[in-house]
């Protein structure tokens, strides 16, 4: 019976893909080996990182996600705005319930349940509208750089343990990765590092994605300047720098010109921490990849490392970079920032130990909070609950006037006949359309 269900599940996936032309993303357990150890973890299309989705601005993309794993999750799309289409945004228990094992959900990528995004992630590239181009000189080529994490244990089991053992902290990475590889400077790293081949004189657009669960990262390329031109699907004024600082879930587009002596150069990333770096709980190592010039030359014994790479605790370097970012805000790409501020809010985000009673016993676990209020997963998604509540209100506002009209027109049979035959069915059709048409599942880009 299990084999039959699996066959039907894959048959449904194939039929939906062929009939609709949508992109199907199967998510299931896969084995990957790094740092002398193999891990079984959820991945998309059997790849880590997941596949890249390319679309143009203004396109509508349909993505059918099939959960072939052992636990539920959702997908969230960082940087993709969802005006009037919150059903496809993806935060777990906020806009939708989890995609349970053996089921699927169509979004019109990064998972949003616990720490599954440590392995379930991929890049979505939104190209300019067809017939237009970038607001900066067109690069000769593009490359995606995914900054990720590698754990030695089962992240989900570690997280479940850490949440109820308040002294445990949170799962710690064994290493960071660039395009899933930890590089040469990490103990027991047998895989060759990720390598980007470049031609002298050409300019490359690096689309950098930080999928690390809970750490900001510095990133730099030895002896090469980076020109930031965009972040989180928004163009910025050009910013020339020798390093960037990128937050979890953030994307950043940078230009790099291969204008140095042909050789091999390290691309490197390291964690930025705001706590005392002598404290345990952060990864004090560099992840590296190689920028390698094409052509004939004598390669160095070892690639050069970024000379002025910020140290882990350099607050001035992190804040100094972020404070220089400015929106492009030109005629073609306007930014309408509200200037009339009517309300000011003070919100404190914190991580604390929460105590509560469960079945008569006092329990404690780690929880985040806003202004000392924590969120507990509801039985259904908040958006769905709000939508159904709005539906009840809508029904009342519709049917109460209909009841009054019905009572009134009972005295006038001629009008009552046309009311029953034409007006009432039309109103009911509108009601049905409101109920069935609100659950839009498409992603507008």
Write a structural description:
The chain is globular and about 95 Å long. The chain has 5 helices and 21 strands. It has 445 residues and is α+β, with helices and mostly antiparallel strands. The two termini are 41 Å apart. The chain has helices at residues 2-20, 155-164, 315-322, 382-409, 413-437, and strands at residues 23-34, 37-44, 53-56, 60-61, 63-67, 104-107, 124-127, 141-150, 175-178, 195-198, 203-210, 216-221, 226-231, 234-241, 244-246, 251-257, 264-272, 287-293, 349-358, 361-370, 443-444. Strand 1 and strand 2 (37-44) form a beta hairpin. The protein folds into 3 domains: 2-127, Cupredoxins -  blue copper proteins (Immunoglobulin-like, Sandwich); 141-322, Sandwich (Immunoglobulin-like), CATH 2.60.40; 382-444, no CATH class.
